[in-house]
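pasting for the record
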Amino acid sequence: MEEIFILIAEDDADDRFLLQAAFEENGFTDKLHFVENGVEVLEYLQGLAQEESSQFPRFILLDLNMPKKDGREVLKELKQHPQLKNIPVVIFSTTNNEQEMRRCYELGANSYITKPNSFESLLKTVAALRSYWLYSSSIPA
């Protein structure tokens, strides 16, 4: 049976806690794997790519403003990697700037979401993410 999991790249501990709570309140019982910076994202995924039997995350929730390597750099590297380029990447950032959004889509982002400013809004956002990326969309194996 396929293990469903989501990779979340978020450097802020409070945001990680709120995301965990929002996914749990939305009934997500599968695995959330958190990393705290761009280097960890790439190391984790490259490790999975080396294991032939490994499953990739259903999608990646990627913060833009992270230490060591920011989300833009991570996105660019992911979309250039032959084994990782098909993993959907959802940018999840406080940056609400048209130019930044355009740049992320040009780098290969599958979606761009501005972080909600309340837990209630976060619950709705997580419900929509879960519904779309886990049940509505199809991605190649």
